[in-house]
Write a structure and sequence with these properties.
The chain is mostly helical. It contains eleven helices and two strands; from the N terminus they run ααββααααααααα.
Amino acid sequence: MKLSAYPAFTATAFTSRLAYRNQVWSGVFGELVATFAFIAVWTAAFVGRGTVDGVTLPDMVTYVLIAGPLLNWNTTRYIREVGDAIRTGDVTTFLLKPLHYPALLFFNQLGNNAFEQLTITLPVAIIVAFTVGLLPPASLAHGLLFVAYWVVSWGIMFLIATLTAMLAFWLLTAFALDWFLRGIMAVASGAIVPLWFMPAPLAAVLGYLPFAWVSYYPSAVYLGKLDLPAAGLHLAIGCIWLAALAGILTWLWSRMRHRLIVQGG
């Protein structure tokens, strides 16, 4: 199948989500509750303090929105669907079609995430901005770099989620894998607690793992906690992680595809 045909899967995934409007309302409500809960926690933590380690309360409110709804890519449904396809053997049907399964997953998930960003994240951001207030990017350059980090964040999260889901080929379940990944991401990505508040040895280790490029580094760049040279360097490292994870996925899928053919006779 030609590459030009794959965007159709993105459009289909986006429009199919329109049929479940109640999920949109529940998604917005859930994100609002979680976001304001974290804002309340950090507000309490900053009582009587102007700054903590050079970080202000407005910084943390903005960080909560960026690292939360904006960059907290929801992969639960995706991982379980891919895991179920592998467990039931439905994935073998894709071997009979002129398409590349990981590429299909990429464009399909792109449509799902685009839908969630427009219908859930954007309304939450507007409500938080008008009720609590949000900071603009530290500078125009930081804002432009944040866009690049945002793309890298989505790519790394997609690859990590896909690799996790494909482990179901050996474990025959994706339920536990989803919980395991969410636990790791909550801590290692800085989605709940930024790395700058973590113990220095732990932050040093997590700062070089790919999870940090999903939430922490994009948020830190937006807020100007990294100067431009450091932001450019870490963006390059994030791209290296992106290429490495893509290579691992390509290798893993080639092994899985051949084993599926053998098992199918």
